[in-house]
Amino acid sequence: MKGQQAVTQVVAALIWENGRFLACQRPAHKARGLLWEFVGGKVEPGESKEQALVRECREELGVTVAVGPVFLELTHAYPDLTVHLTLFHARIVEGRPQKLEHNDLRFLTPEESANYAFCPADSAILQALREGSGREAWA
Fold first, then answer.
1. What is the model's pLDDT at position 1?
2. What contacts 27, CB < 8 A, 6 or more positions away?
3. Which CATH number is 79's domain given?
4. Tens digits of per-residue pLDDT, 19-56?
């Protein structure tokens, strides 16, 4: 299939604390450097999406999360790859988020997120959050 890229399965976590969600700033040296995103990453072969999310949160933030229901799924084509993103509700059950891989971490309200440059794939998610869906922390 010339011109078509394989779709990369990616997972991310919607983690709430006191009415704010966790946003992570990508490292400068990576693709889409210094843009903001939800914590997560690629699903490895043999992993479920939930297992991948637990692993990514441990690797990137040093926390253990409990994975809840899916908040939103979407497919986005970047110039260099096409991702199928599954965003799960999640909560931290152990640890405090640390900058192990990211340039910065912030808890933002959906309204504040408008002032941050997020990865393009996240625009539909941010729109849904600003419209009020998904605001309640999953318990």
1. 44
2. 33, 34, 101, 102, 103
3. 3.90.79.10
4. 999 999 999 999 899 999 999 999 999 999 999 999 99
**What pLDDT is recorded for position 139?**
55
- Overall average pLDDT of the 59-79 stretch: 96
Look at 137 and 84; give whichever has higher pLDDT.
Answer: 84
Residue 136 lies in a domain: no
> How many domains are there within the chain?
1
d(CA 101, CA 87): 19
Nearest by Cα to 90 from 14, 24, 11, 19: 14
